[in-house]
Design a protein that fits this description.
Elements (H helix, E strand, L loop, with lengths): L4 E2 L6 H7 L12 H14 L17 E2 H6 L3 H12 L10 H25 L6 H14 L15
Antiparallel strand pairs: 1-2
Helix pairs in contact: 2-5, 4-5
């Protein structure tokens, strides 16, 4: 895992910055890596994968893969890749193309998750509180049989 970096779409950069705690914000995450990994998990959960488009070059600049590895997100990156590709070759540590593909899959799920979060945060003042609501709803969500309309989401 040499010099690869995890990138953020330019149109999601402000959202990622707002999700990270700083003197100006009360974001729920400590680092950009934490926010991006959470977004990737949301994207995977809701099966939303979205190409990045234009990449943010400044805040947040592309983040070294080693930061994600040091924070324990390497397993998440690999799990998303194997679930998507369904072939063990994608996990190879010696194949640079496999590593690039794993990163691309992770970035696209993160981008999809950030789109979901952006939609969920419309009108929110405190992202932490809204995240708690999202997580509570996911935990309590019941599976609705195919073809049946669920009115509970309007409550």
């Amino acid at each position: 895992m040499s010099g690869n970096r995890i990138r953020v779409a330019k149109d999601k950069a402000d959202l990622v910055k707002a999700l990270v705690a700083s003197p100006q914000t009360t974001g729920p995450f400590q680092t950009y890596a934490d926010a991006i990994a959470f977004a990737a998990a949301i994207g995977a959960k809701r099966k939303k994968r979205s190409p990045l488009g234009i990449i943010a070059q400044k805040e947040p600049a592309p983040i070294a893969l080693e930061i994600f590895v040091s924070r324990g997100y390497e397993v998440t990156i690999k799990l998303l890749a194997i679930a998507e590709k369904k072939e063990a070759k994608i996990l190879s540590s010696f194949d640079d193309k496999a590593e690039e593909e794993r990163i691309r899959i992770f970035e696209e799920y993160a981008n999809g998750g950030l789109e979901i979060l952006r939609d969920e945060f419309v009108g929110a003042v405190d992202y932490t509180e809204r995240l708690l609501l999202i997580l509570s709803n996911e935990r309590l969500k019941k599976e609705v049989p195919e073809g049946e309309f669920d009115l509970s989401r309007f409550l």
